[in-house]
Task: structure prediction
Amino acid sequence: MKIGLVCPYSLGTPGGVQNHVRDLAEALLALGHEVSVLAPVDDNDGPPYVVSAGHAVGVPYNGSIARVTFGPRTAARVRNWLADGDFDVVHVHEPTTPSASIIALWAGDGPFVATFHTWQVRSRAMSAAAGLLRPALEKLDARIAVSESARSMMVQHIGGEAVVIPNGLYVDRLAGRIRPEWQGKDGTISFLGRLDEPRKGLGVLMAAVPRLVAERPGLKVLVAGTGQADEARRSMPAACRDNVVFLGAIDDEARADMLASSDVYVAPHLGGESFGIVLLEAMAAGAPVLASDLAAFRQVLDGGRLGELFEPGNAELLAERASRLLDSPEDRDKLREAGRNAVQRYDWSALVGELVSVYELVARR
Result:
């Protein structure tokens, strides 16, 4: 099949949607399909299957800064891509975002499949824009949501129904190696996320560090992600600063190594999460997971069977449950084994067939 994928966010910026689109493109190409990805691109260093929809600009969205593209030049590029591609199906991601995906729906005739990634308790902007979006969204031949939370949001604000097909990952790529320099003599905790995005919860982890270090002076806390670390450093007592290692933005190999080197992976997010791909990455690498008790995380962790949960924003509970896991190698081993078994369901080898079945269905229509 000739398949067009549209990503609304810049591929040069780390993010779950961007990673999902790239991985899906690779999985489809491996099956022999022709694939073209349209996305905001700030340079020409992307894979050969990527076509630029224009330069990205940052706009506030869902508690973060989304790098999107829009305007007459972008619209012209989208129309040309659709015409040149002559696709059997076009798969747009986050079609309500003001970027290339919604422009493709306005400009094209389909057949169209859409994946909804975002979850929000309330979205006044989406409710207000529903009338403007409806003509474009009515062109959709099939709707996919990455989780029950994302599906519920879509039904509430947009209407219609969607099949749930979760985010995927390449499990084998997360088989990292343990790096001795990242091992603390009293254990290793890790965090991965944008440092200057409050909803990722780094501040909650930093508030828990003094108690954890008081109990375990040799504890090492690895913090990876884009953004400035200065504020996080200043928030810690001087006695704890040597225990925290800020790794900055890391590549996929280092990410796998960091997770494999961790006795506990902490996801202290405060909200706005529709899935929890980072939890799956940790599980695939063999890191026991301690996560905020958000609906999306609870679903991925099977209510706590595959990882520990704590009240979002509660640094005391985070420290208490991290300490308990660090004290119990048996519990950590049980979580490792359960996580590695469960994560196989999310490997792209298992998921890509579900998506191709949707494509074939709408193409036949």
